[in-house]
Amino acid sequence: MNQTHELTAFYDDRAQADAAVRRVTDAGVPAGSVRIVEGNDPSTNAGTRPEAEKGFMDKLGDFFMPEEDRHTYAEGLHRGGYVVSARVSADRKDHVAELLDHDTGIDLDQRSSEWRNEGWAGYQAGATSDETIEVAEENLRVGKRDVSHGRVKVRSYVVEEQVSEDVTLTSETVDVERHAVDRVVTDADAAFQERTIEVEETAQEAVVAKEARVVEEIDVNKEVATETETVTDTVRRTEVEIDDERR
Phi and psi (nearest 5°) for 7? Predict the structure, then answer.
């Protein structure tokens, strides 16, 4: 049975890590046996970030290494570094280790000491790891909003139309007639007296008068109706099952 070894090395930037991968694959190690784990962007995520440690620890979860080294590599990823891993056979172990170390491999012991001086706690042997599962529950909130169903607009305006009506008009005309007669003046005749007869001619003409009358009234009313509507939706909540197999 061929025994394999997993070799790891830490680098400060991507260019150094890529160069290490090329050296190893050029030496005949299959590309599928070599991989790179990328850390934080050092321009935005410099320094330790304990709350994110679990994410980097998960990335290193299947690496065969002591737990102390795993924590140190995770801190290096926090600080923007790169981890290169290569799985090789026992007969190529020493040569590949030299290719990974080269001139750019970082001495993790020295680097971890520097980080501890900056406040990094490092790996604590025997320390307990507490994890918390948040139990979440959704609540349904139902509100109201006004939705337009259209409008009713009543507008009044003035129009003109021509109407006709017949009216009977009466007019009077005065005619003066002179008749030639030859008879004896009697007492009935007011002869030799001054008299004046005045008769006025009259005529009727149409007089137009307009009267405005209200013939219709239009009322615009809004009726408000209230109804109860049942809103149904789904909400989620976290259920927790605890299997206690202690005896």
Answer: -105, 135
